[in-house]
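The methods section describes the discrete structure representation at length, but only in general terms. The central task, working out the structure tokens from the amino acid sequence alone, is never made concrete. Nothing conveys this as quickly as seeing an actual entry. For illustration, here is how one protein appears when written out as sequence plus structure tokens:
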Amino acid sequence: QFILSQKVIFVCSCVYHCVSLCVFKKTPTTTQKVQPTKEMTISTQYGLRIPLILPRPKWQEDTVKCPMCSRKFTTRRRHHHCRCCGRVCCNSCSPNERHLPFLNYVSKERVCLKCEPLSSIVWHASGVIIRHDEIVMGDRVSGQLELRIKAAHKLAEMSRKSSSQQHELVNFTPALAAIINLCISPFDELQACGVSALKHLSETNGCKPTLVALGVFRGLTNVLKTNTDGKTFGSALLVVFNMIKDTKQFCAEAIQSGLLFAVIQLMTEATGKSLIRCSLIFKHLAKSQTTTDRSQRTTNLIIEDEHSLRTVLSSAPLMKNDPQAQEPLLCGLAFLSNDKTTISRLNEIHEHMSFVLSSMVSDLDKLATSGSERETRYRNRSLVHIACFLANISASDSLGKFTLLRYTDDLTRLFGIKGMMAELRLHTTRGLLNLSRHDRCARHLVRSAETFSRPLSHVCSCSCSYSCSCSLYFLIRTFVTLLIGG
């Protein structure tokens, strides 16, 4: 009888184990259909959805031990899955249930101990509520906006705290999506919290791809266009600069999101550090679109928008008292002038452009030796960028006579600067060579031959360097071109 009873118990336990595997592992049903899980790419941008609803995570395959407590699974200690992260866990490691409307659940679902504290914060920060088995925004519901602001401050505080808490935030994708969702909120305080959190997260390289995939650039573009707080959009510019300064990987997404147009509009209003950041962002985005191969150069920044191009050119002379902001802006224009398509767009506004460039050459020539050593260095670099820009533009065949003569005077003036940098001399002689091919400029260049001959002896004495050798080569070719043409 004892052996028979043991056999009955063994058979019952086997039946119970089989039934538990077949029945209890099914996904709990909800009133809404489960969305298909997708890999997050740049085109998804789930953080911009209103209300915020993310794809549900994939469930981890069953394991022998619980990954959280390392205890073996048995017939009594069964497998469970956290609905927030998808990892396998036992009942002791997932004892509670929480609302997860940001994952399209309308009822309480099982969550593990690691996801439990953050899931509640993300739910309130997303601003969604569950009403009649539907997920809707609750900003207009009494008390919900205050609850959302409190959760937003909590996320911003966690991003600033110790590395362990920041690490948990970085590895929790719904939290990153909720932070980006704050940036597209119509309330300035929520935007400020979102930008404050992104300011610290953008310094962590590990979460940058996830932030871009969730749509961080469109969120920041909304902040730059709508927020009226100078501190907030100054921090937003810092976030953008941190995202693109070390890699070209995310620059294309930043351009497609319309971020560059918002930065250009801020150039006419920003001052101080914000103005410097606008110029640096413009420089990095222009540089990212320029390849080293001339046959494959493509620049798709502002060539389709004449108003934005005029705004950039008009902003450059206004920065003469801030050379640290003027230098990267002119460097960006020099990069843009490498592309033939951009040159054709620039030539459409050549009269306005020639007037702006001439005024900048005159101002920089007068201020080159004034100010501190740092300002002098920035102004000298600005002269180099203008010379490079003029040299690239001068190669075009669609310039007017007045514009060509003005460019000739500018390059001649740059060539006559005493103690010029070798790089400035290189671009200046390259521009003179391009202008010498135009019949309209040949006679004007012959009249200015004395200006070229004065620094020629200095070029010959410094021909040991590569740049001076190139300058001498360009200058000799210019004279040969003039002689053949004359």
Q: What stands out?
A: The chain has a mean pLDDT of 77.
